[in-house]
Amino acid sequence: MRGLLAVAQREVVDRRMWLLAALAAGLIPMAAPLLPWVDAGSVAEARSMLASVLAATLTAAGTLALGLSMVGSDLAERRLGFYFARPLSAGAIWWGKLAASFLIVVLVGVLAALPTALVGGNLVLRDLVGLTADGAVLAGGSVVFVLLVLALAHALGVMGRSRSVWIVLDLVAAVAVGGAIWAVGRRFMLAGPMTLMTWLLASSLTVVLAALLAAGWVQVAVGRTDPRRGHMALSATLWGTLGSFALAVVGYAAWVFAAIPSSLECLWEVMPASSGSWSLVSGSSAGRGDYYPVFLLDAATGRWVSLEPTPHWWWFTPMFSADGRRAVWLQPTGLDPSDTRQVVLAELSEPQPRPVATSLILGRSARNARLSPSGQRLAVLAEKTISVYSLPEAALVRASRLDAHSSQISIRFATDDELVVSVWPETGPSTATAVDATLWRFDVRSGKLERTGTLEASRYRDDWGIPADPLGELRLAFHPRGSEMELAMHDARTGALKASLLSQPDQPLLGATFLADGRIVVGESRTAAGEPARVHLFGRDGRLLRSVAMPDGKIGGFGSEVAPDVLAVRLGTLESWAGRGGNTVLVDLEAGTVRRLAAGHVPIPSVSWWSPGRTPATPGSAASRLFRTPEGGLALYDPASDSFTTILDTRWPRT
Amino acid sequence: MNDQTTNQVAVAGFDSVTVRYGAVLAADAVTLSVPRGSVYTLLGRNGAGKSSLVRCLLGQQKPSSGRALLLGNDAWKTRRIAMERVGVVPEEPDVPPGMTAAQAVAFCSRLYRQWDGTGVAERLRRFAVPTTIPVGRLSKGQKGQLALALALGPRPELLVLDDPTLGLDVVARRELYEELVVDLADRGTTVLITTHDLAGVEGIALRVGILRQGKLVLDEDMETLKARFRRITFGRRPAAELVTERALTAMGAVRVAGGEWGFEAVVERFAEDGFGRFASEAGVVEPEARAMSLEEIFVAVCGEERGGVA
């Protein structure tokens, strides 16, 4: 320590001109009133700005200059022997010089800003600290940055001064290591695991800083007074460390992206197709942080297709055709979430389905994509233009611009040749306000886009929370009626009221869903009057066909028909947004009977907020019989044996 | 080389030290030792490998193979500890140019357990080295004198001087050697010196090593060395050619030249009785043997290759 302090002190004295220059520069802003373009009212502001710029510039220049010369100059001028001829360790020489350079850089910044600060100047740097929630983070970041630049400049200085062919190896290694880290970083950025990205960035920064500092020390310890040997030692340490780190990162990334469905530890999302046995599953995996692998999983055979997760992918979550034989999704082509997206599809009926990128590239303004029931067409809303593409031909079929004054638009296929368009007026940031919607019809064959009617103000927009009518004719809507909430049935095209199904106080809310044959099921939780929860079955004309009382007071949501006319209904409240909580009963809609399932098993909802317009699952299909086990696994229910077969041995996410 | 043994008798040494710079061989399996209390002069032409060996000895450079031994230990591994007891005067003065002599002294004094501040100040005064102006503005002689003062500051057991007189004028050289002599007389410091100033070092060197193209071709006491080298001049009758050649070879002739004036030979195994036999050979006329200076011996060893009798 004695040697380190002696070297550091010597270095500070030797570089004292930097401090004097900083002090002199700090006085320059005092002359701000003399500047011709500064008026009397803006003197303080001009002085502060000038001081901030000068302090930042001098600090940056000092960091670079000191880093380049703190050891490199002595080495090049053969003066390092002065230190090595004394009882000084290499560590004392390196760390002493580094500590002194760091101190000088800090003092340069402080001295350059000090005079302005003393006269009450509002330094930009101080503003930055004020803007940051945690000033310690900014200070810590500055320390790391200065050390990083000092060590990097030192390394570059040694490399440049040695005039060794090793500099070629340095360049090759830098490109290789940088390229590997960038490739992994880009892959992570595309996949969007922010926590992993943060860790990668933080660990990269830490390793780079540690490698540079260690390489500097090794260069002094091993190279001593020999510039070339020092260069070799520095490069070997630096690239050895960074190369090992890059290999570890590449290996880890390869492992992360090699996840398979059985790697899933917590299942977060399950979205079955309306028919068949394929589902979208996604969740977290041990050791993979917040990277959530996404798969298309065949519950019947265990086959799976791995999808590239992307940031905000839920806005472009895969869509299934009505028969569940095709899945289509949009894959970002760049890092920016607003970049163009490529249309990718998977033919799930093939023996080994795989993602196939089509030649369809959608513009950055594309949103609200919808797949037609047959899976042959894709409708895309971009700004106010509706475009319909043919997937087999990867070509535009028809496009039309909507003559509306609002950008709050939703689209939905009624049939492959017909799109129903809903337009809500702009109501500011909140979309919870109930306002009338205008309904439009887009005829894909003729390209005609015409207004067809108005839908009375409803609570939820774009069919959020309500599956679409499998026949494409009806539409359910919740209307606020004073303190009550009315569930009404409308004509899907004109918006005309066809029937009022039920009215209830706003709390507890109603739940509703279509059955596969087009009938409507409405759940009514325990009312304020204490009546028990019930499930009502309505015909397509709005007539009440049956009411079945539930054993518990609250209906948590609807599953699907596990068999024709046998509907899975979840009772109780959710414990997490992922769906944990409650028990399930099977309601025989024909006989009006209720049967409890084994405790803790909950059905996969027939509709989710991220899948608006989805049609109900075909009764008895694998998609209709998917349940979460009490532990959070994914299981397939067999009504005949009243048993569950585990498909994924996952658990519930921690809440 | 046994470390324990070395510690008892040798302060510094090299154990089969080889130094390579790529394909260039700077030192080739050099083995020598510097006995305690001796003044060892390592000689060699430019590029012979002297400075490489000195850097190895000071722990500033790792030999390609072999070990440099400093105070009985591997110099590369124990440099920092050893430097407490070693003073160094480098070939090129390396005190940072921004430092004043006073600052350099203050810096160094903090690093050693013992520091002869009075002695250093006295030497600087005696050398008339300005202590308040930056070292970069001192003359080369003054820089060398400062380096010597700093090297003697910790009262070192070993003083290593790497061509310390390079670029110094005659007066500065003399002052440097005088200072060395004083220190040697006072404390018996062991000295390893490499130099091209053979005349200057001749008066103080006790042992001499000569490097030629990286190889140590000579390593012995100065007294012995000077005793066995002689310059012999003689005339010769025409019929005595074979006889004189045989006799000179027996004395280890390293160079023979001849002309109208007669013949001159340098021999490396001179002995009085051998010379007596040579002088009495038939055909040898007016033989004379002269002692040689260190410089003459060096030239004979490192200069032209051995020649035949003309």
What's the Cα radius of gyration of chain A? Answer: 33 Å
Coarse structural class of chain A: alpha+beta
Which fold name corresponds to the CATH topology of the domain at 466-620 in chain A? Methanol Dehydrogenase, Chain A
Give the mean pLDDT of chain A: 86
Total domains of chain B: 2
Q: What's the overall average pLDDT of chain B, rounded?
A: 85
Distance between the termini of chain A: 50 Å
What is the assigned CATH homologous superfamily of the domain at 466-620 in chain A? Dipeptidylpeptidase IV, N-terminal domain
CATH second-level architecture of the domain at 466-620 in chain A: 8 Propeller
Low-confidence stretches of chain B: 1-8, 305-310
Largest interface: A-B, 23 and 26 residues
Under the CATH scheme, which architecture of the largest domain in chain B would be assigned? 3-Layer(aba) Sandwich
Please provide the count of β strands of chain B: 14
End-to-end separation of chain B in angstroms reads 44 Å
Oligomer: heterodimer
Q: Tell me about the largest β-sheet of chain A.
A: 4 strands, antiparallel
Binned strand content of chain A: 25-35%
Please report which band the strand proportion of chain B falls in: under 5%, 5-15%, 15-25%, 25-35%, 35-45% or over 45%.
25-35%
What would CATH call the homologous superfamily of the largest domain in chain B?
Answer: P-loop containing nucleotide triphosphate hydrolases
